[in-house]
User: Fold these one by one.
Assistant:
Number 1:
Amino acid sequence: MSLRRTAVTGIASLLGSRVLRRLAEIRPPDSLVAIDVAAPPPALGVRHHAVDFTEPASDQRLLELLREEEVETVVHAAFFTSPRRDSTYAHELESIGTLNLLAAAAAAGVPRVILRSFTTVYGARGDNPNFLTEEHRLQPSPALSWVRDKLEAEQHAAAFARRYPGMSVTVLRFAPLVGPGVHTFYTRIFDHRVVPLLMGYDPLVQLLHPDDAVAAFVAAIDQAPGGAYNVVPSRPIPILTAYHLAAKIPVFVPHPLAYAGADLLWAAGLGAAPGAFVDYVRYLFVADGEKARQRLGFIPRHSSRDSLTAYLRYRHPHAARPAAEAAS
Amino acid sequence: MSESAKVVPLTKGRRRRRPEVRRAETREAGHDASEGLLVALARVLQAGGGGVNWARLAQVWSAFYFAWHSEEVDEFGYDPKFAQTILPFFEFLYTMWWRVETSGVEHVPDRGPALIVANHSGVLPWDGIMINLAVRHEHPARRECRMLALDMFALLPFLAPLLAQSGAVRANPENGERLLRKGEVVGVFPEGVKGVGKAFKQRYRLARFGRGGFVRLALRTGAPIVPCAVVGAEEIHPKIASVDWLGRPLGLPYLPITPTFPLLGPLGVIPLPAKWSIDFADPIPMDTYGPEGSEDPILVNRLSEQVRSIVQGMVDSRLARRRSVWFG
């Protein structure tokens, strides 16, 4: 029985590394291949191929590799979870890198591709419904290259799925990860004592526990049903409630000032995200997890509050009595 | 129950509460955070001046927030604890200020979905809050009614979070359908902005019922429509003129001029104490047409017009019986 191998990219990212580790637990290590510039932990016993997706000839290299390893499933998780200042490199890796990988997979006749994506690709907009379903149009702010590159990766994937009917492409749109082991610009907000907040706005946000994310990812790799799936926690949380659970001192900023201020801080190298990101703390981008529940059988075990509480416990294991624990 | 649940609520004895409602909410909220506030304050006092630091202040601030907010909200952001906190104010308006007289509330079914369709008036969405209270307090099954709020309110800074926390949901077809499919009672104002912002001389003349979106919603879900007429709300903020060019930069379709606003400044926001009545008519079954009826524009229009004329008829008959705006 050949052609049963699963290749995982982006194994240095939190989600990629956790998925690879989980797969190594439930499958023989020989059936796994890691494709990344970084090597996986040797203890896993997983074969590693160092490929830089941003190199022009990487598609040729990937094609040979996928053929030689007889890969059946490609799991693509090589994406940045925080905005980066060198947006050119991020674009090369995320948009062009995905294109290279898809081209190689199509040429090698790989039947199943799983793409890691983000609920941020819907865009946070005033006219969003409370629950975004997978069919909802994707229109993030064009000013945010960090999200635009993910959107382009999804568009490449959709185009390949149309052009190659024999290739099933499954896209997983994960809500922002918050929980033990997560270090993104999103969780760093919870590490400061005083945090800026938008005056007059309190949107619901979804914070996904990494354990739930890994469970959904592995379920999708097993089934590879094709199409897009939102992977979200069981309940959203108002952003103000999240800050108060973390016992932050909020400083309320009027929104016109917030866009300009965030842009200024970003340009000065101090901010965590460019100004256009303010949309994501101003408007809703809550996604509906019903399709994943029905088709993947994925039922999240953590609510947004649980994810945040777990993160706070992980960051402050010796805290006297974090507000978040009062209820448990 | 944890030890934190034993604490006596700060509000004890101040007013009557319906015990069955309170039990449900305590369960939902998980614990009584007013203990958290007292303990946090005591810690600061105990520590004296030297022991006050950012961490302790943040704890007091957080405990203060959770004294009147839940840690978990529902998927649309409804916060039972917050709703309970502001309930006495709305009850005062209902029983003392507007002396609301309700009839026919038993026409709302005891269980299963229903769509309450009412006329909209009064510049601010007070009528929605009062219909919600009428169903919650006067209906034999004490049903919750989720009001669909117009975008102009549901997206307005400061008002938007308050509406979401007190149970209102932004009016769009996806949200309405989701609630009805869960079997909830949903309230809707098809007149929209044309209704709530109509000039005083247009009072009680119902505007066009949108494009029949509420009928399509009811047809798709099979939820019966309960026509509802509100009389009295037209007189609480008599809008004698409006300044559109001033409203637009604030995100409002109009800025109302009433006899008291902006003349009396913030005091002008206080609604006048007109005598209200809220009448419910016999439910109109919608499951006889089947969901495919929602694709039939002629049927949708006919049903929409039928509901509109029932509501207009109820309004007219109330007005004919009314001898005084203030005393009914």
Number 2:
Amino acid sequence: MLASLDRFGPELAVMATAGLVLLADLVVPRRHKAWLAGLSVAGLLAAALWLVILVLRGRQASFFDDSMALDNFSIFFIFLFIAVCGTVIIASLDYAPRFGSHQGEFFALMLLATSGMMLLAGARDLVTIFVSLELTSISQFILAGLLRDDKGSEAALKYLLLGAIASAVILYGMAFLFGIAGTTRLVTTNGAPSIASTIAAGDAGIRSALILSMVFLAAGFGFKMAVVPFQMWTPDVYQGAPTPVAAFLSVGSKAAAFAVVLRIFYEGFGPNTFVGNDWKEMFAILAAVSMCVGNVMALRQTNIRRMLGYSSVAQAGNFLVGLAAISALTNGRTSLGASGVVFFLATYAFTNLGAFIAVMAISNRTDSDEIADYAGMGRRAPIPAAVLLFCLLSLTGLPPTAGFIAKVYIFNAAVQADLVWLVIVAVLNTAVSAFYYLGVARQMYLETAEGLPTLVRAPWATQGILVVAAMGVLTFGVYPIPLIEAAQRAVNVFG
Amino acid sequence: MTSVPQEIPLEQFIVLSAILFSIGVYGVLSRRNAVLVVMSVELMLNAVSINMVAFAVYTAPTLFVGIIFAIFIITIAAAEVGLALAVILRVFRNRGTANIDEIDTLKW
Amino acid sequence: MIEQFGRAGFLLIFAIAFPLIPIAASVALGVFRIRPRKPDPIKSSVYECGMVPVGDALVRYNVRYYLFALLFVVFDVEAVFLYPWAVAYRALGVYAFVEALIFIAILFVGYVYAWRKRAMEWI
């Protein structure tokens, strides 16, 4: 049992830090709330250090009686979530005073949401998945409404109502899965019956119930991944929520949802079982619809955060291409589609965080998210504008950025899985997306800035984060091999 | 462990739960007051709890995991309702209404 | 199976008939002009244990009750988890005892937080 707790260490460290921050908030005076950010980042670093030590000791195993797993997949995502949360906390130092007396709650809830995501990455049991999903979601509902203003509370209400419905739908699917298999374990290591073994046995009588459960799970997780037709909340929340929260949601929540979908569908349902083709086709259709609707809706947006919201719907469609192409193999073992999703998620994390933090740095000075107000921003705020431009190029998928490599990788997987029609749809959509991404760039660099004031520079921490994000996007665009190998090792645990 | 009630087939529980879930979905789609929407979501969650407990008793009578699952559902439903009421309260103070048709600053 | 429902059904029929019979009798006596009909304001007012009824029953409750309801729900749901643990206490042993202590400690942190944030004061 102590060995299990050892493997559970990173999550425990983050949760304990959240509790500490909440308690410290009661005694720290208002002028010194920045200390709480320091405490949060220290907790995240401790978790990362613990995880590094676990990896060095080679402690990868299934633990807590197979309800959690510490494998290359969960390690990859835990590092990703720690990095995302730390980045957002550091970048939001400039923004946090807007929360007034609720700064402590902001940091504590960020940590709690992150710990939920870390749990999701390793969860192997339906109960664990559900509880960690709710830990993430409920923290994010509060975060979305933390500013308590008109738009924020509206966004929080919409997010919460739709999120609660999505949870109920997921649960209904899980109930059937539990009824079919008689257990909640996705996979077991000791030979006991599990959901995966029940499905692999392939009794034709359970097929219709399995498909019912699959549809419910895809609908519920589709909400968390923000794919059409479950995307309604995305632009509203990205626009209404505080900007750092929107940045965190757009990356962390989406990555966690894809991680758990990979766990359930790839590890649980399996790509080569008698329902494998059903879920692959389902995701292929969702991918096509998401890309088309997301891009077309993004074209007509005038608010940059709303535009990024629809862009994230379209990007979710790109990730789903990888899920649909899961059976394309490389080296005879590694799934190209799944490793493409994981690699794409990691590059997307850098890219979207960079874009959102640049938007935050600019809008914190101009108090406006309208794209029209970005006129001449290349001169008025050079560093955020340059990073924003670079990240938008990566979101479009132009070289020499990480987004380009990721798109090529995932389209290659789709071609190998005989999904040429999907690749054609995706490439056409990439062309459409260039219009609105580069429209912002045109506004920033080609519109005149005469008469508009040069903006006060963002604090050095924000600028540093921006530069790091841009460097990440560039590095993985030029030399992506290490990240691709890490992604392939991560998905090999399912293969 | 409770003995399996032989006379009542499992299907009746599944049908009951499906009806309850559908009523919840109908409520979510048709109600205009945010509090009533939350109540309808509760109905959906309770439908799932019935399903979980029924499956636990019929298909895995030696495992308590389905019943434990139902307890977790109750807990998280309580957390969600508490939070939902807080958010609705905040919206009501800002807007003077809890009617979800009138909460439409953010759209398209 | 069906006879079990039969017993419950008898109870059900009785439960429906019990309030319906007096109402039907009252209506019937009125129709046949057997019972006198002399309404006055006090007679036709809502019977409220002798008090004079004031206003509508559908009032808006003070929002402060919400905080109390929320705190109640937190500790109410805590009990849901502690009951199974208490029932199986002997079988579970020390490990579950420590787990329950941690569980209560987390709730205690929330309690301290609520207290310090003045959630329990009648503002």
Number 3:
Amino acid sequence: MNKKEKMSFTRRDFLKGTAFTTLGVALGLVPFEAFSSQGGKKERVILIREKDVLNNDLDLDKNLLSQMLDSGMANLAGENDPSKVWKKLFNPKDIVGVKINVMMIPTHNELIELIVKNLSKAGVEDKNIYIWDRDEVGIGSAEMHSRPRSFGFEKDHLSKVMKRCTALINVPGMKSHWLSGAAFSIKNWAGAIDNAVEYHTEDCCSSFGALCANPEIKSKCRLIILDGLRPLFNGGPQVDPKYLWNYNALILGHDHVAVDTVALKIIQSKRDEYKKEKWILNPPPIHITLADTRYKAGTSDLNKIELIKSGWQEGVLI
Amino acid sequence: MGNQLESLLPQKVKGFEKSDKAKSFDRKNLYDYLDGGAELYLAYDFQSLLVQDYKAGEKSITVEVYLMETSQDAFGLYSLDQEGENIQIGDRANYGSGLLKFWKGNYFVRITDMNGNDQYKEAILQLGKNIESKIEIKGQKPKLLSKLPPEGLIPNSQRFFHKQIILNNLYFLSTENLLNLNESTSAAMGDYLLGKMNLKLLLIFYPDSSSAKSSFDNFCTKYLKVSPASKRIIQKVEENKFVGLELEKNYLWITFESKDEKKTGTFLKNVREKLR
């Protein structure tokens, strides 16, 4: 993991399209058609939305959310029965770490509860389910919201929870971010290390991709469930409520970079819709592209992503 | 410091009452509250923060009071996003979708209802008024803002900052700190509408003229890819736009987004006149 690698990239490079072309596509600066697909296997990403899952008073319909998760899991694996997918991904001997986000745009509690419930149904023992962010850890359903335990960090800065687990699920929020441009699944791992400050750098946090390329994460993370129920499209992590909207979505995948590329396209489209003109994210979230090109952690090329959309399509933005 | 900030907060306003104990943060532990967001405040001269929740049954409002070393930096924080309804609270305030922001003296205050609607607007504004009434000092905007030419300046578009990470959030230039921005530099940014043409002005004051000159040279060679042969340069860049920059003693000013070379030159001269 080489997080210190120096890079130089200017606004002009970006506009010329000589660098970060996949990012340019996601931000709508480079036409999608300008890319030639190289064929081959595509990375599947699921986008599922339900109009009534979250109402204007922000009441969440847990049954609908459960149906969304079931449908998303089934689509992700091309199966009819979502419980089979959970069983394929996780076995009863697994110790599963569920990495949530508690800061500012937190993962919804109802989603966490559903994930824990599905893991239990797949045979994972309650005592082997760790729900955590930073160094606040809960074991099993009784502690998933209070997270009263603390495990500390290893010398290599990774959370000890992660080392203890045999499998990981990444459950980030969906937000723009003033320092890194965007904060989705890749950046969520900043809450699994004790030196995140070293990644929050003035070069647009270019090194975050190193996190999901870390062997401990890459080899163990089997599922990403991005909470896109009420994302933030400007500022962040500190919230200005006028930039929140009920998108009512979950985004599922196995590839951090592909999931983040889809989320980025949605956030950028929302910004353009809000301003009624191009309103490019500042700074550009180059860490997503670099996670692909520098750290080889996944694909940021929309041509290599098989996006399956289902449910509510009005205002889908992608 | 926590007590000083706590004394600003009322116990109860329009049915909302303090709930739980207020939380205090300083430069060392601000990350505990704002992981990934602390750098924003630390890029200004942040001293301490008090966070207090108010509740009325299930309803909740959060008050954040930031104490800065200078009123200029309190304004700087406020200036980053001034979109919203102008409100007569403190030295300047705006409100929108459940968030009131204001600065007064060296305080920057945010009062938020996370639901993002206006149902608690009255309580939020009253809380703001109560807090500002206990702040006796009046703030002073950074003097550098007075150097921005007023003609064509879009209201509420003036920003003030010191560091590269803030610049890149306002207008991404480079992953490298080409302009050598740091805590000892002061920068102002303003958006202009000149006829039908938009233009963005960045004006930087360096602690010494040699720092200004080396930043000018660096920007010319690394960003514009031209030789810094004169003190004023206008260069055509992508999207048929022009970047203009000029140097005078400790000042460096740069224009972006202009679509007219001649107007860029005239505007650069106007800035020079304003600096004298």
Number 4:
Amino acid sequence: MVSRIIKKMYLWLMLLFLYAPIIVLIVFSFNDSRSRGKWNGFTLRWYAELFKDSNVLKALYYTIGIALLSAIISTIIGTFAAIGIHGLNGIGKKVILNLNYLPVLNPDIVTAVSLMTLYKFVGIEFGFITMLLSHVTFCVPYVILSILPKLKQMNNHLAEAAMDLGATPMYALRKVVIPEIMPGIFTGALIAFTLSIDDFVISFFNKGAGVTNLSIEIYSMARRGINPVINALTTLMFVVLIVMLIYINRKQEKSIKKKGGVI
Amino acid sequence: MRRGLKITLLILLISAISFTAIGCNDDKPTLNVYNWGDYIDPDVIKDFEEEFNVKVNYNTFATNEDMYVSIAKGGTSYDVAFPSDYMIERMINEGLLAEINKDNIPNMKNIGEEYLDLDFDPGNKYSVPYMWGTLGIIYNKTMVDDVVDSWDILWNEKYKGQILMLDSQRDSIGVSLKRLGYSMNTRDMNELEEAKNELIKQKPLVYAYVGDDVKQLMVAEEAALAVVWAGDAVAMIRENENLEYVYPKEGTNIWFDNMVIPKNAKNKELAEEFINFLNRPDIAARNVEYIGYSTPNVEAQKLLPEEIRNSQVAYPSKEKLEDTEIFVDMKDMLSIYDELWMEIKAER
């Protein structure tokens, strides 16, 4: 009995530890003062100001835009690269796999500075394009890594069988291989999307005039103190995420029921 | 399920493509502004865009050094930037700034004489003042019963664990130098060593080395004394009436954030137009009210609410400013500052 209570407590304590900072942040998005130390009464002022603050909105727009684009592009590149790597044999495969691990293990700052030097050397103007290219660059290895296991699980003879039955290689790829590894592609795209939204260091070195993302925008408020508008924005993003998660879970439950409880 | 996936993918692609399209079809002239985060009234930018029918790309940075890296690395161009005094000196020396054509900035006449022709930019060839402020001590009247008029109070054993220092090497070492009667810009190793030893001696008394969180800590009365900038002090006193700000008698640091035009600016005339616009008294006053720092624009100062206009914190009398010093670019001494600061921070 006691051990059960402790078990339950433990779970709640852990959740509290994880969510306490977010709860504080949400509460202070309704605080009627710029101060983060003192409660001055309830207000919706920061939410109103958020939708008037063109800088924060622009940063949000670029953050999401770049995350979407880089997720799509790096997923396409990563999928074909993974299929290619899977088809390799022997030492060549090992070398390429390790080359693929390298950017993952590399500290972000090294990637950031080397990309910056590269763009300068080639002479591209810093801005949207450089930021997007950088994000694609650091996302691709993660996409490859999330697709490779799915390829390994797949029966290699499936594609061969399809081609034996008259499918062209392209048709076999589209109708057999890709559907088989779809869950891997989907996780890869999600990882790329979250990594891109999270990134600060690489974006910081490769941004240009007029293009910025949320993490840079928030960091640059350090001298004057974080504007509570950011609290309001984070609250909204958190709520959107929760609603999305609930919706997806509901849908999954329904589709499982439809299939008669078999997963 | 497959169908749903296809449709979502299609929507994603379309939104992504339309996104890139929106991003770049604008043929209005654009002005790239590079400023500290949250350091302008956003409505002022909108007004400028409407009045001159242009688009303003507003970019932000957190420290002078961040801004320096972005401008010095090249590959992108900003038309107006807002560095501080010592950084302006460094950028002039490195040839990163363009000379400003003052014929295009008639509103410069609104700026007080004492804010012009300073050492970091003689004759204001390259920069126009935007904001200024000083460093001083803020203290809680209910927690401190000595007279606070000197940096010495920060070394008083009585306030052990209740003192907040700035987590900034130039400022903290500068405070220690000033207290000993030396210049904040000294290049004398013995004086610097002495200042360092004093800071190490003071360390057991210090509650924390802080950045922006100093505001919360002081307003919440978690510390009795802190080194702060005057602009922040005004905001803190508004939140907690027990706080009071003083200029130490040994003198202190005075800083300036000026507007400059980088050499590779694409739209220099428009940049000058923007600088001129920010110096219009009504516009400058709006920015001061939003930011809370002190303005060098004398005409704008007259438009401020009385309590701010006459505040001794924001606009001290000339005598109080007599012993103030502006930071000078330390050039080769920077690495020595780094080392001293490391030693102070590493001390337990």
